[in-house]
Amino acid sequence: MNLHSVSIGTLTFALSPGVRLAKLQRRVTKLAKRGGGVIEIPTRGPDTISMLVSPGVSVLFHTRHVSAEDISVARTDDTLSVHHEDFHLDFL
Known about the structure:
Elements: E1 2-8, E2 11-14, H1 21-33, E3 37-41, E4 49-53, E5 59-65, E6 72-75, E7 80-84, E8 87-91
Antiparallel strand pairs: 1-2, 1-5, 3-4, 6-7, 7-8
């Protein structure tokens, strides 16, 4: 199982499990090359994130492969926590 996330500045968001990562990366790159624009980020859970992409904005995509049976996921009102024996991730 792959857990995908995107970091924009100091914020990190968990991406939807069904996200087509390569397509999203191409769209972000295309907007940056055109000088900027707004794109909706498919996040895990009920939140919708729209971000302004421009040549000066750092966007980091991160993928971590874990086995599905080795993780547990917990959601509070404002944070998604992913627990695995080797790491702990909190997403907004």
